[in-house]
Amino acid sequence: MVHKILFWSGFGVAVRLWQLGIEMRPLFTKEGAWAYPFFAGCGASFGYWLSGVEQRQMQLLASRRDKLLEKRKRRAEREESAAGGNGGRAEEGGVLASTS
Fold first, then answer.
1. CB-CB contact of 66 with 32 (8 Å)
2. Per-residue pLDDT tens digits of the chain, which is 100 residues long
3. Structure pTM?
4. Counting runs of H as helices and runs of E as strands, what totals does the chain give?
5. Are 44 and 15 in contact (CB under 8 A)?
6. Rounded to an integer, what distance in angstroms lies between the CA atom of residue 52 and that of residue 30?
7. Is 68 helix (H, G, I), strand (E, B) or coil?
């Protein structure tokens, strides 16, 4: 998480440098020194927010994956029990019907 915050704070400083470059103003002046920490702080807050979004998405994906795996497991058990009652005939019928 720290690396994302550092990256985005550096990105904020780069945006300030780019802005001054477009305006063709000096990059480092006493009057404009306050803007660098401000842009770095804005970038850092965006990076912090983004890492929270990523964590929530990963939790959501993990829960969906677990639900899908459980659903597949229940389906496999249900098909196995259905095939076991017929002596495996249900599976044979599906294979023969699909090949002919």
1. no
2. 788 888 989 999 999 899 999 998 888 888 888 888 999 999 999 999 999 999 999 999 999 999 999 999 999 999 988 887 655 555 555 555 556 5
3. 0.62
4. 3, 0
5. no
6. 35
7. helix
